[in-house]
Amino acid sequence: MILDILAFGAHPDDVELAAGATLAKQVFLGNSIGIVDLTRGELGTRGTPEIRDLEAIDAAKILGASARENLCFKDGFFQIDEFHQRKIIEVIRKYRPKLVLANAPNDRHPNHGRAAKLVVEACFLAGLRQIETRIDGQLQDPWRPSNVLHYIQFYDLKPDFIFDVTGFWNTKMQAVLAHKSQFYNPNSNEPPTVISSKGFLDSLSNRASELGRLIGTEHGEGFIKTRDFGVNNLLDLI
C-alpha cells in the first residue's frame, strides 16, 4: 500500500494530539494517510497496552487512516541504533510516503525528542541502496520521503509554518477522545496525570485557536521543518 503521508508517534495518541486535524483535512482533500506508533505506551499511568491498542484502532478510523501499526518498541527505553532504525526503514519502504510527520524535536517526554531524531535519521537511511531490508522474504526497494515535518507537542515550540485546520477540529477531538483511558473523564477512578485534566484538553483548543488567529483562521496546527522547501508560485503562500 502506497501512502501520501505517514505520521509517526512515540506513543499511541501522540499523532492525534498534535496533528489529528491536519491528517483529517488531508484525507478530506483526497490524500491517503497512515500512522505508525513506535511503542504501546506501556509505561503510561492509565490504561493498559491492550486497551490502548483498541483505542488506537478506533482513533485511526475516525481520522480516516488507511493503515495503522505499532512497532512495539520498548516504551521509555528504545534507542537510536541499527535495530530500531531498520524497523522504521522497513515501514518507510513499505508505505513509500511522500511526506513523513514526526514527534517534536524537543519536548517534556524524553521519548518524543528521541523518536523525532530516530525517524529523521531512518528516513534518510531508507533511501540508501546499500542498506538491504526485506518483508516476508521480499527485498525492499529504497525510498526516501521528500520531507519530514515535526509536529508540536507539550512545549510551545515556535512553528515554521501553520496549517489551517478550520472545520476539522471536531474530528481531531473525536480521535483524541477515542483514547478514553488517557484523557479527562470525571468518572474515572484511575490516578490523575498531566494529560488527564480538563485543563489539558482546553489547552489544545486554546493553542489551535491562537495559531489560527495568527493566520486569520479559526484553528491551526503548527509544524517545524527539517529542511527548507520551495514553492513554484508566490501566490501559493497566501
What does this entry look like structurally?
- The chain is α/β, with parallel strands linked by helices.
- The chain is built from six helices and nine strands; from the N terminus they run βαβαβαβαββββααβ.
- Strand 5 and strand 6 form a beta hairpin.
- The protein is globular and about 55 Å long.
- It starts with a strand and ends in a 13-residue tail after the last strand.
- The relative contact order is 0.18.
Major β-sheet annotation: 7 strands, mixed
Q: What is the approximate shape? A: globular
Strand order of the largest sheet: 3-2-1-4-7-9-8
What percent strand? Answer: 15-25%
Number of strands: 9
Termini separation comes to: 33 Å
Provide tags for this entry:
seven-stranded mixed β-sheet; 6 helices; globular; two-stranded antiparallel ribbon; alpha/beta
Give a brief description:
The protein has 238 residues and is an alpha/beta fold. The chain is built from six helices and nine strands.
SSE layout:
Elements (H helix, E strand, L loop, with lengths): L4 E5 L4 H15 L4 E7 L9 H15 L3 E7 L8 H14 L3 E4 L7 H16 L8 E2 L2 E2 L7 E5 L9 E4 L4 H9 L20 H17 L5 E6 L13
Parallel strand pairs: 1-2, 1-4, 2-3, 4-7
Antiparallel strand pairs: 5-6, 7-9, 8-9
